[in-house]
TrEMBL record:
Domain Reverse transcriptase: 9-62
Transmembrane stretches, start-end: none
Protein name, entry field: Reverse transcriptase domain-containing protein
Annotated organism of origin: Holothuria leucospilota
Source organism superkingdom: Eukaryota
Classification via Pfam families: RVT_1 (PF00078)
Lineage per the UniProt record: Eukaryota, Metazoa, Echinodermata, Eleutherozoa, Echinozoa
Amino acid sequence: MSDLILNICFVNLDDNVVFSSTIEGHLESLEAVFTRLSQFNLKLKSSTCKLSQKQVKYLGRIISKKGVETDPCKVKDLPNWPKLTDQSEMRSFHGFAEY
């Protein structure tokens, strides 16, 4: 059975997160991202760039060598969520749950 190779890039307006299961795949993904940014004359702010992180918290997720997981602090209050009483509260809860 061959090893699973995972290369993923998340982009969200100001954030770019690239992660891979191998260093070779990671370098290829970084090169592809840097090439694409360069093609469109987009720049990265070096003071906010972090490379070779073992774990990253990003949009309610934790990205690590284990993969992408939900950040436990985002769902810890879910069992104690108050009873919903109106449509506005339902929409708010739905947005949270969908996230």
